Amino acid sequence: MSQRGRRTQEWDVRASTLARNTHNLIRSIVENLTVEPNPSKPFIALSVGDPTTFGNLNPPEQVLQAVRESIELHTSRGYGPAKGHQEAREAVAEYSAHQGNVTAEDVILCSGCSHAIELVISVLADSGQNILVPKPGFMIYKTLAEGLGIVIKYYNLLPDKQWMVDLDDLENQIDEDTAAIIVINPSNPCGSVYNKDHLNDILDIASRNRVPIIADEIYEHFVFSGNEFTAISSLSKDVPVLTCSGLTKRFLVPGWRLGWIIIHDRHNILGKEVRNGLANLATRILGPSTLIQRALPAILKYTPQSFFDEVILFIEVSGRFHETTIPNQAKMAYEELLRAPGLRPIMPQGAMYMMIEIKISHFPEFKNELQFVERMVSEQSVFCLPGRCFEYPNFMRIVLTVPEDILREACQRLVIFCKEHIDIGEKCKEIDNNIIPVTNETEFICDN
Q1: For residue 316, pLDDT beyond 50
Q2: Which residues form the Aminotransferase class I/classII large domain (predicted)?
Q3: At 256, is the secondary structure helix, strand, or coil?
Q4: How far apart, in whole angstroms, are the C-alpha atoms of residue 392 and residue 388?
C-alpha cells in the first residue's frame, strides 16, 4: 500500500498546549496526599467549599418549587440564547440593582461563576498579558489563565489588617501588559469584607493606571453583623467593572451551575468590542441550563429574606441581634482555636471560610504547612486545605459550613494535635506572652 499522504508511520497523538498548561492547584495537592486518616477517629474534611456537603444547609422550599415548575415547561427543555433567556437576564438585572444601573443588556448568564470568570478573563487578556490576583486568593484564576498563556501576578493582602489589600504592592504590580485587576469581595479564602473607603482606594489605583476590574462577588451579601457588603461597581466613577456572581453560595445550590456576568461601563470605555466578545465567547457552550434559567426569575424574586437571615446573616429577637449558623460557627471555631498553641486564627467578616496561621517554627518536626496538615490527617483524621493551595505558605483554611458538633470536634482535635507537637520552649513563650490560656497542665510542662 502506498504511504503517500500519510503524516507518519507511527501514532503521535498529543494533548494541546491548553490542556498541558491547565492545572488546578487545589485538586493537584489534595489528590497527591498519600496519608491515610486515623482509623480510630471519624474523618472530618474541613476543606470542601461546598455548603451542601454535610446536608445541614439547604435551599428554601420556594427555590425547589421554582425548579419543579420549570420541569413542566416545554420551554425549559430546549436550547436557549447563548447569553441567556431574556426573562432570566431581566431578573438578574433587577436582583443586582445594588451594583448600579443594570439592565438585561448588561447581563450574560453562565454555567456557574467559574464559567463567568473564564469568560471575563478570556475577553480582556491575550497570551503574554497579565492579570493581578490577590494573595491569598482562590486559584481558579491561575487554572483558567495559564493554559491561555496569560500570566498571573500576585498582590498581597494583609493578615494583620483583616486581609485588606496592600495598596502599594497592588500598584507596583501593574505594568503595560496588565489587562485586569481581580478583586474578591467577600473573600475566598480569607472571609474579609471591604468597606467603601478601601474599595474606593482600589478604584483610585485602577483609574490612575487605566486598568479594568474583574469583581468576584459570588459571596455578595454573605456578611456577618458589624460588616456591610458594597458592590465595587456601585462606587466606580470611571473604571469599567465586570462583576461575576451566581446562585452557588447564597442560594446553596452549587451543582445547579447558574452564574452571571454583569457589565458596568458608564463611559463606554469597553465599547462594543468587549460586549461583542463576551457574546461570542458565550456561544462556545450555547448557554447554561435552560431548566434553571426558567426557574431563575422565581428564585430571585420569591426567596424570602428570612432564609438568608437564618443561614448567613443575623436575626433580631426582642430588639437584640443574634448571629446564626455560619457567623456563630465562625465565632465558635475562632474561640476554640485560640486554645491551640502555635496557631493564630483570623476571625472572618463574611463568606464561609477562616484562614489560620501556623507558626511553623513552633513545630520543628514539620518543614512546612503541608507536612503539618498531612500529619493532622494521619493522627487526628482532620483535613484542612494547606496555604499553598492559595499561594500562601504557613497558613491553612477551614470551611465553616460544617455542622456545629462536627466543627467543634475538629477544632478540639486541632488543639490536641498542636499541644502534642509544639516545641515546649515555644509553648512556654506563648504562655508568658498571654497568647494561650495557662492551665495546670501547661504550667507543669513549663516548670519541668
Answers
A1: no
A2: 43-414
A3: helix
A4: 5
The rounded Cα 165 to chain-centroid distance in angstroms is 16
Nine-digit cell string for 367: 518543614
Q: Can you list the domains of the chain with their CATH numbers? A: 17-56+313-424 (3.90.1150.10), 61-302 (3.40.640.10)
Helix (H) and strand (E) counts for the chain? 16, 16
Q: What is the pLDDT of residue 4?
A: 58
**pLDDT of res. 427:** 59
DSSP string for residues in 340-382? STTEEEE--SBTTEEEEEE-GGG-TT-SSHHHHHHHHHHHH-E
Evaluate if residue 20 carries a pLDDT over 70. yes
Query: In this structure, what are the phi and psi dihedrals at residue 164, rounded to the nearest 5 degrees?
Result: -65, 160
Q: Determine the Cα angle at 271 with ends 270 and 276, to 5°.
A: 100
From the list 303, 397, 262, 267, the residue with the least C-alpha distance to 343 is 397
> Which phi-psi region, left, alpha or beta, contains residue 74 (left: φ > 0; alpha: ψ -120 to 50)?
alpha
Q: Where are the alpha helices (DSSP H) in 404-439?
A: 404-421, 424-432
Q: How many Cβ atoms from other residues are within 10 Å of residue 262's Cβ?
A: 25
Please list the residues that pair with 264 across neighbouring strands.
Answer: 241
Which tens digit of pLDDT belongs to each residue from 101-139?
999 999 999 999 999 999 999 999 999 999 999 999 998
**Which residue carries 480582556 as its cell?**
124
Q: What is the DSSP string of 86-140?
A: HHHHHHHHHHTGGGSS--GGGEEEESSHHHHHHHHHHHH--TT-EEEEEES--TH
Cross-strand pairs, 213: 181, 241
Do residues 148 and 18 make contact, with C-beta atoms less than 8 angstroms apart? yes
pLDDT tens profile 155-179: 999 999 999 999 999 999 999 999 9
Whole-angstrom distance, CA of residue 232 vs CA of residue 199: 6
Q: Would you mind telling me the total number of residues written for the chain in this entry?
A: 448
Phi, psi dihedral angles at 298 (to 5 degrees): -70, -40
The predicted structure's pLDDT at residue 320:
45
Residue 78 grid cell:
430546549
Grid cell 447554561 is found at 288
Q: Which residue has the cell 432570566?
A: 88
Predicted confidence (pLDDT) per residue in 129-143, tens digit: 999 999 999 989 999
